[in-house]
Amino acid sequence: MSSPNTSDTEQQAAARSADPTLSANRRTAKHTAHSVRNFEQLIKKVEQAEDALEASERAVAADWRQLHATWRAGWTPVRILVAGVTGGFLFGRLQPGRVLANGGGFLRMLSTVSSLIAGVNAQMAASEAEHAAESAEDVASAAAASARATSSAAEASRR
User: Where is this chain compositionally biased, Polar residues type (predicted)?
Assistant: First the structure.
């Protein structure tokens, strides 16, 4: 079939040209093996990333516990008293009561907004009450019609 002086690659090329499915099967097998390797590498990368994330979460939780413990230990009764006295002094020096007594713009705005919200709430409640009244009228008329039908049926059965 082949001469003794033809090389293996020439024989393989001749076989491929004679049978095109042979070449396609080799390419598919090679491609599938390569895809599987890439997929396995991606899985390993994801697992490494998950491990790193879990380690980071543990470190953050440990840091948070340490900060919380340090914060709680730092608030001794003396420090609490000093913070209270300092805050009271600063509050007294700023005299926010004087600003409020003079009718600061913030209070007027707050009053206006609260009136607006109360008005909207009242309008919504009135709308709901009107809808409930209409529903009640519908139910009452249906009940009256049912009662009339029942009484008519009762009278008809008596006769």
Answer: 1-26
CA distances in angstroms from 35 to 26, 27, 29, 30, 42, listed in the order given = 14, 12, 10, 9, 10
Contact by Cβ (8 Å): 107, 100: yes
For Cα atoms 80, 86, 94, give the angle at the middle one, nearest 5 degrees. Answer: 140
Say if CB 14 and CB 2 are below 8 A apart: yes
CA distance 91 to 83: 12
By 3-state DSSP, what share of the chain in percent is helix, strand and coil, each rounded to 5? 90, 0, 10
| Alpha carbons 73 and 155: distance in angstroms, whole number | 87
- Tens-digit pLDDT profile for residues 79-123: 888 888 898 888 877 776 666 666 567 767 777 888 888 888 888
Under 8 Å CB-to-CB from 150, ≥6 apart: which residues? none
Q: Which two tokens stand for residue 83?
A: 């913070």
